[in-house]
TrEMBL record:
SMART domains, per database record: HTH_MERR
Record PANTHER family: MERR-FAMILY TRANSCRIPTIONAL REGULATOR, REDOX-CYCLING DRUG-SENSING TRANSCRIPTIONAL ACTIVATOR SOXR
GO terms assigned for molecular function: DNA binding; DNA-binding transcription factor activity; mercury ion binding
One Pfam family it belongs to: MerR_1
Gene Ontology BP term (one): response to mercury ion
Domain of life: Bacteria
Protein keywords: Activator, DNA-binding, Mercuric resistance, Mercury, Metal-binding, Repressor, Transcription, Transcription regulation
SUPFAM superfamilies: Putative DNA-binding domain (SSF46955)
The species this protein was found in: Sphingobium psychrophilum
Protein name: Mercuric resistance operon regulatory protein
Domain HTH merR-type, first and last residues per copy: 1-70
Length: 127
């Protein structure tokens, strides 16, 4: 299977400039021009899909680059470390969001409890 950069980008749901950006970052290789057009294969599509999935899990492009290098070297220990770091960051973010949700619920209850004075929700966000 051979595809142009636009077909590769479309297959991953990104635009062409995103593919080029990943190439500049060293996450995707840039194939040679054959008959004036660069052609990408199934391996390129899989790699682009991996990058997008890893981003969806919250990995940075730097971490994704390291994961790609680790895959080539079969370093599962470091891959597990990166995953554990990401899990810890997600756990922290979840805790922060749960705290924010709890605070907003309290404000909503206070707002509902009375029609007197300023709305507690608006007052809380005014500073």
């Amino acid at each position: 299977m051979s595809m142009t950069i636009s077909a590769l980008a479309r297959s991953a749901g990104v635009n062409v400039e995103t593919v080029r950006y990943y190439q500049r970052r060293g996450l995707l290789h840039t194939p040679e021009r054959g008959e004036g057009v660069r052609r990408y294969g199934e391996a390129d599509a899989r790699r682009l899909g991996f990058i997008r999935s890893a981003q969806g899990a919250g990995f940075t492009l730097e971490q994704i680059g390291e994961l790609l290098q680790l895959d080539a070297g079969q370093d599962r220990g470091r891959a597990r470390e990166l995953a554990a770091e990401r899990i810890a960051a997600l756990d922290l973010k979840i805790a922060e969001m749960q705290a924010a949700r709890g605070a907003l619920e309290r404000l909503a209850r206070a707002c509902h409890a009375s029609d007197e004075g300023p709305c507690p929700i608006i007052a809380a966000f005014e500073g």
